[in-house]
Amino acid sequence: MGARDFRIALKTRHEIEYQDPVFAVEENMDGLYDQAKIIAHRFNSKQKELGNESFLSAAKLNASGILHLLYQTVVSQYLVEQDHDFFTRLTPQITRNHSCQDVLVFFAREFPSPVLNTLQPTAPYLMEETTRGFFVHQVIMENPALVKAAKPLVKPEGVRFPPASLALAALMGGFTRSAPGIGENDDDLFSFLTSPAKAHPDSLTAQISYILREWRDLLPERLRLCIIPNILSACSIRHFRPIPTTGKTFLPIPGSR
Fold it and tell me: How many helices (H) and strands (E) in the chain?
């Protein structure tokens, strides 16, 4: 599977009448900001019709899309370099617990992936990709700035996960912490992915700057070179100045807690 789309709520898709894959971009990020403007315009127009005053910022949606791309890029790199069957092993543990499996089914229905659906995946591959999607969704939920910027897309009013979602999150957490090569003082994959939001909980652009500095060695050069012009164009941020460094080595990261 190539580019993975940003899985947004089906409820919001219906409300804004938008069924295309969201932010299904690769390293060059072609069309990401244009799509952010379309989604923001459709949502904001609907809010005006309803007399509401809760609007989306295209610039912040753009930054949210970049963060999603960065998360997915690091997950893919982790699978290649460190633990290639991470989700292949995790998914059966989830599906053996019917309540946890129901959470994945709920996620697949309420946060669909048009890109995945067009592939007509086998049942095992569908569940494995749904596990990965839910994992990234959990990373997003730990990012206050991203949730605030894209709340109708990722945490809309009226969409409530089954109670077993807490058990599923705990199961995933235990599995991630026990992954091969993770020592007592090492960051597991989930902790690593949530570290930018912990460092800068209120700023998407500060998180992106952090990632370009701290994760430099994990990101394809083409992606890094495309991010700064995209952000500057979308947000007109004069103080966005990533500091070039040698970056961090890949997981695990001794003593990084």
Answer: 13, 0
> 138-169, pLDDT tens digit by residue?
999 999 999 999 999 999 999 999 999 999 99
- The answer to whether the beta carbons of residues 134 and 141 sit under 8 Å apart is no
Nearest alpha-carbon partner for 76 in 220, 249, 196, 195 = 220
Give 96's contacts (C-beta < 8 A, 6+ positions apart).
Answer: none
Q: What is the mean pLDDT of residues 60-73?
A: 95
Q: Please name which of 124, 154, 160 lies closest in space to residue 141, comparing C-alpha atoms.
A: 154
Nearest to 71 by CA among 201, 215, 174, 246: 215
Q: What's this model's pTM, rounded to 2 decimal places?
A: 0.88
Residue 228, pLDDT score: 75
Structure tokens at 174: 């235990």
In sequence order, the 6+-apart residues with CB closer than 8 A to the CB of 8 are 22, 111, 150, 153, 154
CA–CA gap between residue 170 and residue 149 (Å, rounded)? 26
The residue among 120, 152, 158, 162 whose CA lies nearest residue 134 is 162
Token representation of residue 212: 């370009």
pLDDT by residue (tens digit) across 225-247? 888 777 766 655 434 444 444 44
Check residue 224 and give its pLDDT. 87
DSSP 43-72: HHHHHHHHT------HHHHHHHHHHHHHHH
**Within 13 Å, how many C-alpha atoms sit on residue 49's CB side?**
8
- pLDDT, tens digit, 9 for 90 and up, residues 105-130: 999 999 999 999 999 999 999 999 99
Token look-up 């019709």 returns: 49
How many whole angstroms separate alpha carbon 70 and alpha carbon 75?
9
